[in-house]
From TrEMBL:
Alphabetical list of Pfam families matching this protein: adh_short_C2
Protein name: SDR family oxidoreductase
InterPro entries: NAD(P)-bd_dom_sf, Sc_DH/Rdtase_CS, SDR_fam
PANTHER family (alphabetical): NADPH-DEPENDENT ALDEHYDE REDUCTASE 1, CHLOROPLASTIC, NADPH-DEPENDENT ALDEHYDE REDUCTASE-LIKE PROTEIN, CHLOROPLASTIC-RELATED
Similarity remark: Belongs to the short-chain dehydrogenases/reductases (SDR) family.
Basic and acidic residues: compositionally biased ranges: 1-22
Sequence segments annotated as region (Disordered): 1-31
Length: 283
C-alpha cells in the first residue's frame, strides 16, 4: 500500500458499498430511450455511490462506460456487471486520480478499448470531518485538494485533445459550496473551487462546442459519509436537516448527470443543477 493510499484510508475511505446497511439505491427508475446511444463516458468514482448510479443510468441510455476507481475492486466489478447487464461494454481502471500520470493512463486505456471519448464525469472525491480548523493536517489539506480538484484538472488536461464538438464534461460539486459546512472546511473549499472551475472551463471550451456543467448534490446515502466522511453525531441525523427531512439516494441524483450529458441540455453550459432535498440555493 502506497503512502497516498494510506492517507486516503485514514478514515476507512472511500469505503465499500457492499457493506452498507441499508444499501444505497442505484437502480435506474425508468426505461432507457437511447439518449446516449453508442457514446463513451469516463466516470471517476464509478465503483459506488453516485458514480455507480450514473454508470447504470448512462448504460441504460446506450453508453459504454469507463469505471475509474481507487481501491474497492469488488464494488468496481459489481458496477461493471451492472453496465454489462444493460447490454453495454465496460472497463475498470484502478488508480489515484490525484496523480497526473494516472489520468494519462485513463485516457490511453479508454482510447485503446473504445477509440473515442464523448463524456467525462468528474465525480470522485473525498472528505474528512474536523470540528476545528487546527485539526486539519497539512497532509490532509493537500490530499483533499489533490483528489477533489487537482484530479479534475489532470483528467481534463489528458482528455482534452480527444474531446470534439458535442462532448460534455460534468463535474460533481456540492451543496456545501453554497451553504458552507462547519465540519468540512477543506472539502467545502474544494467544492467552491470545482464550481469556479466548471464556470471557467465552460467559458474556455464553449467556442469549441464542448459543454461544461456541474451537479451539486445535497446529503446522499453513499459510502463517503458512513465510512469516515462524517462524524458519528452528524451521521446519526444524516439528511434530516433538508426540507424533505431525509438523505437522497444515488438514483435521485443520476438523472441530473444524464440531462447534462445528453442533447436535452444542448443550450446549457457553465450551469449547476441542485438535487438537494429542497434546499433553496442562491448563486
Amino acid at each position: 500500500m502506497t503512502e497516498t493510499t494510506e492517507m486516503v484510508h485514514e478514515d476507512r475511505l472511500p469505503g465499500h458499498e457492499s457493506k452498507l446497511d441499508p444499501q444505497p439505491e442505484w437502480q435506474p427508475r425508468y426505461e432507457g430511450s437511447n439518449r446516449l446511444k453508442d457514446k463513451v463516458a469516463i466516470i471517476t468514482g464509478a465503483d459506488s455511490g453516485i458514480g455507480r448510479a450514473v454508470a447504470a443510468l448512462f448504460a441504460r441510455e446506450g453508453c459504454d462506460i469507463v469505471i475509474v476507481y481507487l481501491l474497492e475492486d469488488d464494488d468496481a466489478a459489481e458496477t461493471k456487471r451492472i453496465v454489462e447487464a444493460e447490454g453495454r461494454r465496460a472497463i475498470t481502471i484502478r488508480g489515484d486520480i490525484g496523480e497526473k500520470d494516472f489520468s494519462d493512463e485513463i485516457v490511453r486505456r479508454t482510447l485503446q478499448a473504445f477509440g473515442r471519448i464523448e463524456i467525462v464525469v468528474n465525480n470522485a472525491g473525498e472528505q474528512h470531518p474536523d470540528k476545528d480548523i487546527t485539526g486539519i493536517t497539512e497532509e490532509q489539506l493537500r490530499r483533499t485538494f489533490q483528489t477533489n480538484i487537482f484530479g479534475m484538472f489532470f483528467l481534463i488536461q489528458s482528455a482534452r485533445p480527444h474531446l470534439k464538438s458535442g462532448a460534455a464534461i460534468i463535474n460533481c460539486t456540492s451543496v456545501t459550496m453554497y451553504q458552507g459546512s462547519k465540519e468540512l472546511l477543506d472539502y467545502s473549499s474544494t467544492k467552491g473551487a470545482i464550481t469556479a472551475f466548471t464556470r471557467s472551463l465552460s467559458e474556455n471550451l464553449i467556442g469549441e462546442g464542448i459543454r461544461v456543467n456541474a451537479v451539486a448534490p445535497g446529503p446522499i446515502w453513499t459510502p463517503l459519509n458512513p465510512c469516515g466522511g462524517a462524524s458519528p453525531d452528524k451521521l446519526e441525523h444524516f439528511g434530516e436537516s433538508t426540507p424533505m427531512g431525509r438523505p437522497g439516494q444515488p438514483n435521485e441524483v443520476a438523472p441530473a448527470f444524464l440531462f447534462l450529458a445528453c442533447e436535452d441540455a444542448s443550450y446549457m453550459s457553465g450551469q449547476v443543477l441542485h438535487p438537494n432535498g429542497g434546499t433553496i440555493i442562491n448563486g
